[in-house]
Amino acid sequence: MRFSQRLLSSTSSAAADYLVIGGGSAGCVVASRLASAGQSVTLLEAGSSDRSSPTDLFVHMPTALAWPMGMKRYNWGFKPEPEPTLNNRIISCPRGKGLGGSSSINGMVYVRGHPSDFDNWESQGAAGWNYKQCLPYFIRAENWGEQSDSNDANYRGKEGPLHVKFGDNAANTPLFEAFIQAGDEAGYGRTHDYNGYRQEGFGRMAMTVFHSGPNRGMRCSTASSYLHPALKECGDRLSVLTNSYTQKILFDTSATGNGAPKAVGVEYKDSSGQTKQIMANKEVIICTGSIQTPQLLQCSGIGSKEHLESIQVEPIYHNPHVGQNLQDHLELYFQQEVKPPVSIAPVMNNPLRQLALGLEWIISRTGLGATNHFESCAFVRSSSKKTYPDVQFHFLPVGLSYDGVTLAKSKTGHSMQIHIGTCRSKSRGFVKAKTKNMSDEPLIKFNYMSHEDDWEEMRSAIEVARQVMRQPSMMDIAGDEIMPGKDADLDEYIREHVESAYHPCGTARMGNSPDDGAVVDNNGRVFGVGNLRVVDASIFPSITNGNLNAPVIMVAERMSDIILGNTLLPMQFESGNEPWQPPSLETDRAKEPINF
């Protein structure tokens, strides 16, 4: 597989209008939008290109999503501190490394979130980030490959770079539709498009896979959809330095005016370990994600004065909130035996069939190689106490371990799996640099399940899954519960089996001022210094309802307009087409379950 691109050698240090640090989900968007607007941009990425190694094939093949996550070339593989509430387990924290960042190794699930997520951002101090003002940027980013009904049409975009589509059920299994129908029978209702008019309910799941053009059937990362096209179109205005690991932000502390230090460039290490500098004519924009963004700020002198001095970093600006407010989604596996031979287990445990699958994808970009296998899903309220869907289900037509290797054991050899996740945990953690060296992994403490409400919500989510398996559509399909098992101690099962959904955010949150816990203002500008912004998931005031890649891309789109001084896109709603609300909040479902 050959691709054309133009990358600067790592010896280049020419100044640019904007330095974008981190070529991940947000950085690729920001760099391409700024360069397309006529600005000179240099993007620095610590990892490699996504088009320079034979193993990059696994990045671009949707079904191979577990492979790059298991390779150091593509995954930082952070190791957080042990979690006391989870029997001192260390919960893995993968983060994308290389162009595309986590959009090159994630599950490709496209979830914008619930409208109230963004209204909550505004109520927490992020003025201008309500749903009506964010929606136009979801639309601008998107190239939706499906037909929308009249309710959803005004919510979807058709002309953006990011391809989004439903799965094609290449396995020809009835399990996806049976799961959706069972959710409806359980009283939770259907949604035609959870990214449109109505999030709540059971329905088909969308994925970021190219649905047309020369890349059809391939992963649609932000490197593929934004950066590589911009490299072709923008000429010398856009340059990329790969294998270039930023070590700190450089400041001019003699700045005049308000006296605030001004970011003027960065110091980085190239692939040989040589330390170099590159300057910014206008701004430095940090897009290194919720783990490394606070670490880079701290290593550059922005953070708690006491902490900075303890790691021998000269304080530039005291802000104790840098690295705080760390949030994530947790999920666990609910596995059920499948009685008829309709799961994809025979493919997953047969090397010859996997080889055939891969060859079909290489030749035609179709078949099981062109899907992430998450083709149905649900967003439901677990109790009448909830005003929003607090539970997310990803459905998989086979029971499979996190590494994609171990199949669930069942009498029939067939199984299905629900990834059960809760959407708005109240637990909070932090990220703290251990030393002044960016190459030293930071201390990461999530404090998972440290709030009692998290336990109640996870227990309730498991019971919702069990309810779904008792519906008529599952009567001839669902066999025995494999995990957790009908007699399991749910709390112990959660302690031993819950894992991260890989959605860290919030560690440099937006807001009105540091007095309110904010690190950046509502234009992404870092408080206390000039010419420095943050654009990534770290600025989220609170976690959104679902997978984070879509809202990260939206934030990067909107921030790009803000940086350029463009008039922001107008709010998007036609009268009478506001987002769906449940007719009653006195119950968690539209009707009583049928059961069998």
Task: Walk me through this protein's architecture.
With 596 residues, this protein is an alpha/beta fold. 23% of the residues lie in helices and 18% in strands. Strands 1, 2, 7, 8, 9, 10 and 21 form a 7-stranded mixed sheet that branches. Strand 9 (262-269) and strand 10 form a beta hairpin. Helix 1 (25-36) runs parallel beside helix 14 and helix 5 (131-141) crosses helix 14 (549-564). The longest helix has 18 residues, at 452-469. Residues 1-12 have low confidence and may be disordered.
Shape: globular
The rounded Rg comes to 23 Å
Q: Mean pLDDT, as a whole number?
A: 94
Range of helix content: 10-25%
- What amount of the residues lies in strands? 15-25%
Low-confidence stretches: 1-12
What is the CA–CA distance across the termini? 51 Å
Number of helices: 14
Count the E strands. Answer: 21
Biggest beta sheet attributes: 7 strands, mixed
- The secondary structure category is alpha/beta
Blueprint (SSEs and pairs):
Elements: E1 16-21, H1 25-36, E2 41-44, H2 57-60, H3 66-69, H4 115-123, H5 131-141, E3 142-144, E4 162-166, H6 175-185, E5 201-204, E6 206-207, H7 222-233, E7 238-241, E8 245-252, E9 262-269, E10 275-286, H8 289-299, E11 302-303, H9 305-310, E12 317-318, E13 330-338, H10 345-348, H11 351-364, E14 376-380, E15 391-396, E16 415-422, E17 430-432, E18 443-445, H12 452-469, E19 478-483, H13 490-497, E20 499-500, E21 532-534, H14 549-564
Parallel strand pairs: 1-2, 1-10, 2-7, 3-4, 10-21, 11-12
Antiparallel strand pairs: 4-6, 5-14, 8-9, 9-10, 13-16, 13-19, 13-20, 14-15, 15-16, 17-18
Helix pairs in contact: 1-7, 1-14, 5-14
